[in-house]
Design a protein that fits this description.
By secondary structure, the protein is an alpha/beta fold. It is built from 6 helices and 13 strands.
Amino acid sequence: MRLKYLFTCILVSFIMNSAMAQDSPILLFPDGAPGETTRLTEKADREGGFTGGEPVLRITGVSEPTITIYTPSEELANGSALIVCPGGGYNILAYDLEGDEVCQWLNELGITAVLLKYRVPRREGLQKHEAPLQDVQRAISYIRHNAKTLNIDEKSIGVMGFSAGAHLAATVSNNYLQKTYPAIDAIDKVSCRPDFCLLVYPAYLDSQNFQVAPEVKPTKDTPQTMIIQTEDDKSYINSSLFYYYALKEAGVPVEMHLYSKGGHGYGLRDTGASVNEWPDRAEDWFREIGLLE
């Protein structure tokens, strides 16, 4: 019942307070994203599937990555920010399920949410995450560069993601010492290291023999991390288990909540599984790491 009420509140809040989001998305690369020679036509589809009895908005054909900033009320704002990376296999973005709805939830906690529309689908000749990594690096640096204007603590900027978006969040958590594209302006002189990381049913983090994928090898400086996973998410459970182990071995503070059932791709919606209470655990974690009082 609490979960249904929470989801209803999020939807109502989204409808009534959509003005909280910045009116226009911000282009991350005003003169064109690195390596992009053709402007794709963005396509939005609500016919591709349902979660929790509601359709999922799927976006693809993104060649101009953007961020949209969702600002909490002055009464709730606590000075922290989270860049939100929707999933979709690096081919589409589950833009409402793992984007808009998540940003509204974060605003209710007083956290500034930054919805990242990164480049999809996968680019021929590039690793699946190569172009999106450029986008999320730029997004983090942009928010940190503008932290004072946005009333954000530059040392309290995190990243979170779902499925492929969680892979992207983990990848930038381990690839922040230098940009993966040529510097453009003063923004790119600012650190793109997240201060914390929340991964929900992450994909693609595992390799052979209990090793992690080469792009996500943790060190002691990898940001503190929380992982949400279900045992019956058969295709991706090893992503969470292997990455958790690698973080532990590197001495990184890490917390994982492993549920028995729930599958994959539930976002914040009520699908009738116990994993649907994960936002409560995330809120506890936010409080534990000092984001919330």
